[in-house]
Amino acid sequence: EGVSPQERTYGFHAGEIETAYLLHATPSLVDTGAYTSNYIARVENPELLKPEGSAANFAWLTRDIAPSGVMGDPSPATAEHGETWSNEAGARIAEILVAMYNFEPRHGA
Question: What are phi and psi of 16, to 5 degrees?
Fold first, then answer.
């Protein structure tokens, strides 16, 4: 929740979500002065060829789009979002693990 459609679709690496996790868990690893924003495509400008998730994807390397390695926009990231999203992810993973533990195979179904 709270992530823009652009970031949700094309925030592949070191954007808002990953930066928020780091701001929460290990803020000393985040250099806020080095933020850059780079996207391989824009959601408001759909193209025939997409970077992923379409019938015809084009090949790309991160350095083709972002020499910094950032594929997204880290600037909206906050430690508070990082904490919220970490807790939500942890709760979801716990639910999945419990479901896996409780799973009973249905032979011959």
Answer: -60, -45
* Residue 77 in tokens: 């990231």
**Sign of the dihedral through C-alpha 36, 44, 40, 74:** positive
pLDDT in tens, the chain (109 residues): 889 999 999 999 999 999 999 999 999 999 999 999 999 888 898 777 677 777 777 788 888 889 899 999 999 999 999 999 999 999 999 999 999 999 998 886 6
Structure tokens belonging to residue 97: 């693990």
- State the maximum Cα–Cα separation within the chain, in Å, rounded to a whole number: 60
Residue from 31, 21, 16 nearest 71 by CA: 16
